[in-house]
Amino acid sequence: MTLFEVDWELIIPSGSEAYFTIFIDGEIYFQTQDGVEESGTFITLLSEEEHIVDFGLYTDREDGGTPYVKINRAIYGDLDIVAQGIEFWEKSGTGSIEIIENYLKLLTTRFNKIEAIGTLPVSEPKELQISFDWEVSSEFDYDFFEVYVDGMLILRRSGIDYGTFVGTLTNEQHTLRFVYVKDSSVSENNDLAKVSNVLVGGENWLLDGLTSWTTGGDVNPTFEEGQIVLACDDDQSSWAERTYVPVPQEPELDIANVRIKYFQDGRQVSQVSIEALDAFFVDSTVEVFDPDSGGWNSVVPSQVFGEIERYDAETVIFEKIADSQVFVHPDGYYRLLQKCNAPPGTYYLKTTARVGDITQIERLKIKAKVNI
Is 2.60.40 the CATH classification of the domain at 128-244? Predict the structure, then answer.
């Protein structure tokens, strides 16, 4: 998701009345109190697709002079949208929008409204994907379902509405919060919000209900039929939140050399003779060379697998005839179980280990006197 910040200022001369709004994709995200002169910073996170932003000024009275709004700063990611000039904006309504010095000015007269509408471009996705399904049934424009990431609003809906939210975040610690909040009067529709199918980094956050969540507000949410249900009375709220903590990354190893060693009955071997077994096993360890100590140390590879091969001297090609079963021993080595149907002869156990960017392959010679 991409950060959207707006520094705004509403100027209302004494005796006049007006209020300022911010709509995103046709939904109200912010509104000032009617008739109160104020300023502040609006902050939200928006998903990676294109968005329509709408700054609006509504004037009720202008007895003391004409109210106006200044957008002193509007940054979307790395894009300074005020610096894009007046061409970035589309005017709607009665009044004027203009760039004066370094700010965008909106002005309109009594009983009118003026809007400056712009398009925020598609942004680059981040590493951590989040998604959830939501629905709300409330009094339109008064009782809201809201979603926050790290205290920043990312979704705000009211009335009867539903949808699926998909966005991405940096792979860092983040707190996701769902809120239902009511004003001081009137209830309409079902007066609640529901959230389901919450996926963060591919993990289902509702697999154990609300066990891993923190809940609060005036009324704690409930978990019903796979959904978080948020509901409350007038002038109250209900919320649930959970924090994502990334898995610590293993430090990169300074690896120059990797080797695989084979053992049978605790002794290192370079070849194995099979007398009368149709199944047998070989143990192996994976080691890396430490240039500081000048020695070899055991390491846990990201992958180990084995194969039984036959060597064709005429074509000089190793031919795979069976896979090995690999078991991780509690003592830190790998047991490779071989079982296949092949005539007596000479074979090779090919073991592949991946450590960091290195893929190491070693072959152990096997002399089979009976079928293996």
Answer: no
CATH for the stretch 2-120: 2.60.60
159 vs 142: CA distance, rounded Å: 8
Residues of the chain with CATH 2.60.60: 2-120, 128-244
- The reply to whether the predicted model has a pTM over 0.70 is no
Architecture of the domain defined by 258-368: Sandwich (2.60)
Q: Pick the closest to residue 301 from 284, 282, 323, 286 (CA basis).
A: 286
User: Cα–chain-centroid distance for residue 147?
Assistant: 15
Q: What is the pLDDT of residues 17-50, one digit of tens each?
A: 999 999 999 999 999 999 999 999 999 999 999 9
User: Contact 172/138 with Cβ under 8 angstroms?
Assistant: no
Contact 206, 139 (CB under 8 A): no
Q: What is the dihedral of CA 149, 27, 41, 133, to 10 degrees?
A: 0
The answer to whether the CB of 164 falls within 8 A of the CB of 35 is no
